[in-house]
Amino acid sequence: MYGLILAGGSGSRLWPLSRELYPKQLLNIQNSESLLQSTFLRLKDVIPSDNIISMTGVKHVSNVRYQLSSLCENPLVLSEPISKNTAPAIVLGAKFIAETSKSDPVILVVPSDHSIKDVKLFSQTVKEGEILAEQGYIVTFGVKPSYPETGYGYINTSEVKLFDGFKVNKFVEKPDFETAQKYLQEGNYYWNSGIFMFKASVLLEEASKKAPEIYDKLKNFDFTKSSEIPYTEFDKMPAISIDYAIMEKSDKIALVALKSDWNDLGSWKSIYDVSKKDENGNVKIGHVIDEGSKNSFVYSSSKLVATIGLEDIVLVETEDAILACKSDKTQEVKKIYDTLKKQNDNTHKVHKTVYRPWGYYTVLGEGKGFLTKMIHVNPGQKLSVQSHEHRSEHWVVLEGKAKVVLEGKDLFLSPGHSVDIPVKAIHSLQNPYEEDLKIVEVQKGDLLIEEDIIRYEDMYGRV
Amino acid sequence: MYGLILAGGSGSRLWPLSRELYPKQLLNIQNSESLLQSTFLRLKDVIPSDNIISMTGVKHVSNVRYQLSSLCENPLVLSEPISKNTAPAIVLGAKFIAETSKSDPVILVVPSDHSIKDVKLFSQTVKEGEILAEQGYIVTFGVKPSYPETGYGYINTSEVKLFDGFKVNKFVEKPDFETAQKYLQEGNYYWNSGIFMFKASVLLEEASKKAPEIYDKLKNFDFTKSSEIPYTEFDKMPAISIDYAIMEKSDKIALVALKSDWNDLGSWKSIYDVSKKDENGNVKIGHVIDEGSKNSFVYSSSKLVATIGLEDIVLVETEDAILACKSDKTQEVKKIYDTLKKQNDNTHKVHKTVYRPWGYYTVLGEGKGFLTKMIHVNPGQKLSVQSHEHRSEHWVVLEGKAKVVLEGKDLFLSPGHSVDIPVKAIHSLQNPYEEDLKIVEVQKGDLLIEEDIIRYEDMYGRV
After folding, report:
1. How far is B103 from chain A (nearest CA, A)?
2. Digit-coded pLDDT (tens) for A216-226
3. Pairwise CA distance, residues A208 & A231, whole Å
4. A461, B230, B356, B432: which has the fewest Cβ within 10 Å?
């Protein structure tokens, strides 16, 4: 069996903890693992690590690879050069697996940002689905509704029993509250979890029939030669979900009910719902002091958050943005996100802490003509060989040791040592050692933007 | 006429914007001036600048002097070496004014942290009070209650009319709601504003009769020789309010009703009450984005604060702490403050930005063995000549120019220049120029605390 983890995602719904450049699947809100890492570990229970492929947007590849490399040796991460929704990703994923494995395996497709705590029951359900997938069905895993949710799509099953599942009648859109109540009563409606399973050949054949606008483009891709997805070819594919493109049109769909718990963590409210609460119904994460609040979710990433007498409030503190929201309005976070995007306010996009393939940096302070960062370089990593047209830099080593290459000369710096990098000087910061390296960088100049960089060499292919 | 501004105050009620070391009177919440500065400007309308004396705790002297020096040439600030409530401060203030002016003037005593917007009406009331003070009365300015407030003390007047005021019957404690309602109906009850007026000789004579435990200590102070209040002598005075010590016992008290607006800004709720609201009843200060909130107060000092669907919430963001509070619970902020104090959490005491006589610094970041600050030195100021036993420092100039004296040698640094200050080296940072100076300081060492400082010379008398 193969696994295909869909690790795209825009990061809008759990803003300000998620950002466009650090979306939900990369977060670890409750566990020591991120949602992506939990997803990988869950699949590992039934699928060998080497058979698990992740697909993500080009902006997230380095972060996804970094997170997964703590769980397996060489995580296979495919990069979507542009966002095209799920259908192109899944069809290409199936083609990739079929071509590179030179076989026709069963493929389990899972979103990377859901919460499923009971791995055993999940694996058991997957095994049941596998039998139907082997028989030529496209298996969708449905969640038995526990209340009339209006935020999910539903799947209606027929009475035709198929081993541990049912034949699917139809997919239905997000219902209004009354309809959702009706679905709940009728009993043969399930929430669409976005988890699927199929034989590669079955999906590709259904794509050829139901989604020729995707299938016809497949010949442009040859994964026997390279695992890269070329931008211009991928861009010719329509942006469409697998549900619209294939599921709703196919008569080969079976549904197996998920035995485990499941939560799509699609809003702060749903994070609150799956979190462990104290005796007053509060969830307090981080440095939080409370006086008499009830049923509230308070998340502090770094600063002290004091709350008094709150009821049904979600409060999330990050380094550069704070969200305070009535619990039943958390789906409106997307509005804030869109407003910020429209206003060109970067707060929707990046944190003050920005993750890079070599580590991360945090903006400490900025003002007219200067900008101060704390730079954290992971062991064995190096920043690109680069120069800047508009700024000088001054580095002070705080922890660990640094190798600095400046105009061809090697310098070795220990804590307390500093070095000046003049404007236009070609330089590189490296950490060839086994400990983390932390430096303070003070930038000075008339134009202090990330884009002022000329890269000459880069171990992460960013030249 | 003389003015005595009481600028003590602990900073607990408007936490996290106020702190023990930066209390309410120093804040500018709505205006470009701080409450202290507004108070000074208000008095200037009726009293010459040179006749206005401020009294504050020793910890606040430099900040109080710094704020007032933008309003007059040589602000006279007396330093209380320890907090002893209002009676010792007012009695000593009266003695100070009588001795240094060699006269027996009328003295107007005002708290420094109240809001009075209509200066004209305030001055008019003061002039009315002056006539009674000249006649030998201790005049207290009362506020006509507009609702049954339970958080203030009340003053009950008799029917004896005295020019524009009344003779006072008695001072009464904070009432319960029913009693407050009764007071409101009866009409001859006023809120105690804490503003008083008297001839110096009258107050001192009343002190001799009603508060001998204070009066008897007065001989320990000789302000003809020095304006300093010696700690050991001051410490012998009891800590007691002027209301308890004198007002409630004296039969020379008259009340003049304050004609102007008045608000003691004793809680975030009262700040909200006096603030201008938008059409949804919200007050939004700083970088705030809202979706559908009502009757809420949202204050951002630096970060983006996004609010959705809040009702009757006070939200205050500062660099290192966030408060979220139901509007009718803002008096419980003191509980949070006390909890922090008990936990030895410095967040009750200092901001990340700390004000010093020479300017201020902001902690940018800290970690194991290092601490990074942005230091802002005002023009013409210098830090003390000092050394540290446990840390080295590295300075990078960002803006302005610095004179650094290091082991007796003068260095002159421009933006981009840096210097290393080794452990134990005697050094001083100076800004003898007319522009602000900003530097980044990186401290390194095994013990990074403010107390690790040996001062050799200091222009602010801190050696």
Report:
1. 51
2. 999 999 999 98
3. 22
4. A461
Q: Which residues of B touch A333 (CB under 8 A)?
A: 306, 308
Check residues A9 and A214 and name the one with the higher pLDDT. A214
Q: Which long-range contacts (CB under 8 A, 24 or more apart) does A221-227 make?
A: A221/A92, A221/A95, A222/A99, A223/A95, A223/A96, A223/A99, A223/A100, A224/A99, A224/A100, A227/A76, A227/A78, A227/A96, A227/A100
Contact between A142 and A256 under an 8 Å Cβ cutoff? The reply is yes
**Is the Cβ pair A324, B310 closer than 8 Å?**
yes
Partner-chain contact A333 B308, CB within 8 Å: yes
- Which residue is listed with tokens 């009070």? B129
pLDDT for the residue A210: 97
Preceding peptide of B111 cis, ω within 30°: no
A366-377: pLDDT as tens digits: 777 888 888 989
Of residues A309, A362, A420, nearest to B329 (C-beta): A309
Q: What is the DSSP string of B162-190?
A: ETTEEEEEEEEPPP-HHHHHHHHHHS-EE
Q: Are the beta carbons of A321 and B330 separated by less than 8 Å?
A: no
Instruction: Please give the model's pTM, rounded to 2 decimal places.
Output: 0.79
Phi/psi at B77 (5° precision): -120, 115
Question: How far is B171 from B193, CA to CA, in rounded Å?
Answer: 12
Cα dihedral A175, A176, A181, A186 sign: negative
User: Look-up: residue for tokens 């205050």?
Assistant: B316
Q: Evaluate if residue B443 carries a pLDDT over 80.
A: yes
Convert the pLDDT of each residue in B272-296 to its tens digit.
998 999 999 999 998 899 999 999 9
If you average pLDDT over residues A133-143, what whole number do you get?
97
| Spatial CB neighbours of B439, under 8 Å, sequence gap ≥ 6 | B374, B375, B377, B395, B396, B397, B398, B402, B429
Among the listed residues B105, B87, B89, the one whose alpha carbon sits nearest the alpha carbon of residue B97: B105
H/E stretch holding A405: strand A402-406
Torsion, Cα B229 B230 B236 B237, to 10 degrees, reads 0
What distance in Å separates the CA atoms of residue B192 and residue B173, rounded to the nearest whole number? 10
Flag whether pLDDT at B18 surpasses 90: no
Beta-sheet pairing, B76-80 with B165-172? unpaired
Copy the structure tokens of residue B44.
């200037």
Q: Sheet holding A304-308: strands in order across?
A: A288-291, A304-308, B321-326, B313-317, B297-300, B283-285
User: Tokens at residue A291, please?
Assistant: 């006086």
| Nearest in space to A307 (alpha carbons), one of A322, A319, A323, A294 | A294
Q: Percent of chain A having pLDDT more than 70?
A: 98
CB atoms within 10 A of CB B74: 10
Question: How big is the CA angle at B126 (ends B120 and B131), to the nearest 5 degrees?
Answer: 135
Kindly indicate the confidence band of residue A46, based on its pLDDT and cuts at 50, 70 and 90: very high
Which residues in chain A are closer than 8 Å to B310, comparing Cβ atoms?
Answer: 313, 324-326
| Beta pairing, strands B381-382 & B427-431 | antiparallel
Each residue of B215-232: pLDDT tens digit? 999 999 999 999 999 999
Q: According to the model, what pLDDT value does residue B350 have?
A: 67
Torsion angle of C-alpha atoms B15, B21, B25, B27, degrees rounded to 10: -70
- Which tokens go with B386? 């000092």
- Cα(A88)–Cα(B297) distance, integer angstroms: 47
Local structure of A91: helix, strand or coil: helix
Dig out the tokens for B27 from the structure. Answer: 């804040």
CB atoms within 10 A of CB A105: 17
Cα distances (angstroms) measured from residue B151 to each of B174, B192, B193: 6, 11, 12
Residue that is written with structure tokens 């007219």 in the block = A368
Q: Residue A304 pLDDT more than 80?
A: yes
- CA-nearest of B413, B357, B427, B283 to B63 is B357
Pairwise CA distance, residues A156 & A179, whole Å: 13
